[in-house]
Amino acid sequence: MPVMTYIEGISNGLRYEMRRDPSVFILGEDVGVYGGAFKVTKGFIDEFGPERVYDTPLAESAIMGVGVGAALVGLRPVVEFQFSDFITSGFNQVVNNAGTMHFRSGFPLPVVIRCPSGAGVHGGPFHSQNPESWFTHVPGLKVVAPSTPYDAKGLIIAAIRDNNPVLYFEHKFLYRRIKEDVPEGEVIVEIGKADLKREGSDLSVVCYGAAVHLALEAAERLQQEGISVEVLDMRSLYPYDKEAIVRTVKKTGRVMVAHEDWLTGGVGGEFAAFISQECFEMLDAPVTRLASADCPYPFSSILEEHMLITTDKVYAGLKKLAQY
Amino acid sequence: MAKAKTGATANGVNGAVAHHENLPAGVFQQNHLKKLDALLPELDIPNRKYGDLTKDDYIELYRLLYMTREVEARLTRLYRQGKIVGGVYLSKGTEAIAVASGYSLNRDTDWLFPMHRDLGAHMSFGQRPMKLYAQYMGRAAGPTRGRDGNTHMSDKSRRIVGMISHLGSMIPVAVGAAIGCRMQGKKVVSLTFIGDGGASIGDFHEGLNFAAVAHAPFVLIIENNQYAYSTPIVAQYGAAKIIDRAIGYGIPGEVVDGNNIYAVYETVKKAVDRARNGGGPTMIEAVTMRMRGHSEHDDHFYVPKDLLEKWAERDPILRAQRFLEKSGHLKEKARLKLEEDTIAFIEAEIEEASASPMPDTGDLVSSVYA
Ligand SMILES: Cc1ncc(C[n+]2csc(CCOP(=O)(O)OP(=O)(O)O)c2C)c(N)n1
Ligand SMILES: [Mg+2]
Question: pTM value?
């Protein structure tokens, strides 16, 4: 089994689907000749040609709208926003046009919206955002956020095969930092299913994306101190795996919800509300939320580190939770 | 010029000045007059051959035009009776544009994206009035099964895609449909509309630029009815004509008398044929005048009365009638019979829609996802 980085997992899954299904095509800024700002589609144009690896004008609303139109006529477009921050320029097409299409018209709308997101790459306020929670509020959209190469591949394939608009948040910090064995062939990670990334008995961390790795590192440290931490990677944010949350809460009774996105209004608030309502009797401590500070993503490293959720912060938060 | 009070005392072109108290009155009046002068067409439409239309087509286009007017008149009646709730946006006076545009397409292969004043396009593209009434009444038989109102309706089997309220949003989508069909190796055209107001929004630009670069088999009809809700065109765009923008996109742009249904057909059909044969997109500005308020709750006090009078004489139905009589395609007696049959047909369609059931609530939430 080949070892793949996270970004290779995405590329490999995309290529696999494009070889399998001629209706799959990619469109976005600089995706063709250049291979995408992050090289996710490097070499694709040589294999699939310029029509299926479509370089568009710089116009996010049109890119998204064209993706919607192509999906209407029976294709399976994968729209790439160069940075997820720029999705605001195509927001209306995503939310109002794509999000309501099946409901109001009966047309299936198989469009994947790839969103390179996340901080820790010195991107500053407009190349670091995690805008997933703007979309986990919208019936008609699905939202996924893989944390590993295997899940990256399995979720991109599942997203392409889904007959609904799926926003796929891929974390830029993880692109080349994590590797694992990933099968060359078919890998499918079902949308809506969480994954227990680490088993434990004292505390649970319900998280996704880059925060999964912070939680795993913190759990490793706490293991040395005799505290056993379970890490539940949600992977899908909308719909999300309620059963998996109930299972882990039942087991540990102490839960931290963690993500890199801003705290207030983040999708973690939804998880926390669900736990409070559905798992109240199982809890031995209040549900804790940990996220990045409610502040635009700053540029300078020292400021960014201060603002972001970090392993140290997760570690400290979990320690406190254990002592409650 | 004295400041207009609230616009309620609309006199001449000054009626719209209430929106522009911050502009030097002279400049506003001059610009507005210039624009209006350029827009008013001849009283009668030229008695000539239009494109590839046959005698049957001339008559069928007239029937669809007349039917659209009468279908809408009955929408107003049902609205006043409280049988229709929500907005009713009529195309009175401008019907020819939607009707002829829908008629220019291939009903069996092309894609139509109608806007809020394009009821006639649904019908000239093959939709039954019954379905439209059911939609307005929120019935299960409406194309959205009660999920959306008024002209926002798709029909998957007919390749009609309903708009979302956000004006301009369907332009890139229609462009995407055109490009998508071409990728599938089909010789298919997509067509959508936009108003003089909607043409100001970003998606208009993004969509047209995208279409131009992609050489997409796409046609955009700009329905310039001189008002966007209460906003007159002088407050909407700075250029003499909207179509001047075509130069900027590097695509053909044509202006057509929107109250001449046959000329609209001829112009749109030429663009559709060009698109189908690989000639790329076209934008067409069809000039007309909105003869009622923005919607049925609006008495359009802000539109100068003499402007409306001038345009009333150029009503597309009256002009088509005079043309049909003069050309001999459809003489008065036969026309009256056709009109009578059309009314009877519409009334039966209303009856069927009125008797049809309300939608089931059972699958409401489960219909969100495919
Ligand atoms: C993006 C957006 N802004 C505002 C509105 C509210 N609105 C609906 S119709 C309309 C006027 C449209 O004028 P125009 O584009 O000229 O079309 P017309 O109604 O004259 O046919 C407005 C302001 C809307 N639907 N969408
Ligand atoms: Mg208008």
Answer: 0.94
